[in-house]
Each structure stands twice: as C-alpha cells, then as structure tokens.
Design brief:
The protein is of the alpha+beta class. It has helices at residues 4-12, 48-69, 86-103; strands at residues 15-18, 22-28, 35-39, 72-78.
Length: 107
C-alpha cells in the first residue's frame, strides 16, 4: 500500500486483531494479491534502529505468508517499543496474526 487513502481505508475497517506488539487491520482490496503497510511511529519507538528492526521483522513474516492472504490489504501497526528479546516474541506474534488472517479467523 502506498497512498494515504489506502491506509485510511484500512484503518477505518477496524482492527482485525490486537496483540502485545502489533495491531493488524485488514480489508479486501479487490486484487488477486495481498498488499501490506506498516505504521511504526516515533511515539512508540523513539529510536530509528528499533522502528527499522520491527519493520524488517514484519516484512519477512509477510513475505512468508503473502500467498495465504489472497486479495487483502493488511496494515500492521507497532504498539510497543521493541525490547531486547523482541525478535523472538514479536516474530512469533506477527506470524500467528498473519496466519489467523489467512485462515479467516479473527479476534
């Protein structure tokens, strides 16, 4: 997702799931492939290195599960500042969230 309108539409659809590190918003996009957007604000993670690490983690999980998501716009918002053990916990969390979206189950 690239345009502000696409982000706004995904946010307006409401949260599909909310966990400790991430909130996921999802909506159908009318295409045959999934698209992703990431929100990682300075308020949540003041250091750029932390925001970039979180975005890399999300992109990698999305790449692995992209085909399962079909025609959806998925917007992922970082909720907490990454900690030392962020990669392990958050990686498992984002994979579970995307797998749940792919199977159609929502919280």
């Amino acid at each position: 997702m690239l345009r502000r309108e696409e982000y706004s539409a995904a946010l307006a659809s409401g949260a599909a799931a909310r966990r400790r590190y991430f909130t996921v918003f999802a909506r159908p996009n009318g295409l045959h492939q999934a698209r992703m957007g990431i929100i990682a604000s300075k308020r949540v993670a003041p250091r750029a290195v932390d925001r970039n690490r979180a975005k890399r983690l999300v992109r990698e999980a999305f790449r692995k599960l992209r085909l399962r998501l079909g025609g959806m716009d998925v917007l992922i918002e970082l909720r907490r500042c990454p900690t030392h053990d962020f990669n392990v916990e958050a990686g498992a969390e984002i994979i579970r969230l995307l797998e749940d979206l792919g199977t159609g189950s929502r919280d």
